[in-house]
UniProtKB/TrEMBL annotation:
Protein name per UniProt: GNAT family N-acetyltransferase
Native organism: Actinomadura soli
Residues annotated as signal peptide: none
A single cellular component GO annotation: cytoplasm
Superkingdom per UniProt: Bacteria
Transmembrane intervals: none
Keyword field contains Transferase: yes
A Pfam family it matches: Acetyltransf_3
Amino acid sequence: MDDHVRLRPVAEGDLPFVERLRTDPDLSGPFLWDGWRDLRRFRRRWEEDGWLGDDTATLMVDGAPGGGGPLGVVSYRKLFTAGPVWCWSIGISLMPEVRGRGAGTRAQRLLVEYLFANTLAHRVQAETDVDNVAEQRALEKAGFTREGVIRGYAFIGGRYRDEVLYSILREEASPGAP
């Protein structure tokens, strides 16, 4: 599955898919569903900048030609770290039927390659729930290093949750690496 994954900008026709993926608790899963929100926010954001802003963006994860349609989304946002230094924080949301088949690892690897090839960032990081073992494995397979636990970092399901912090530095990422 992982060699049939590509990233592309969100198109207007993708909005219903993204709305379902991000607002249906059965599709988002226990680690991403954060409650009912205004569905129009997706369209407003798309009309504002096509979800390709300078500080935050979302891309579609597609099955390559012959691999079939949208699989999910990846996103990135700029985080200022110290002084003028910043990094990207990335996230992913995939349809349940493609999870655990390599698509997440491949999509995150493609996103890292894209960010290092097209921005000045030196670091890309990702945070995931301490219980999301599948995502932790995907990040490690994509070349990320586990840095530690951030206590009480997310609020999901009515309680504060600990997250695991992962990162990859520019010199650690090489295009085509496993």
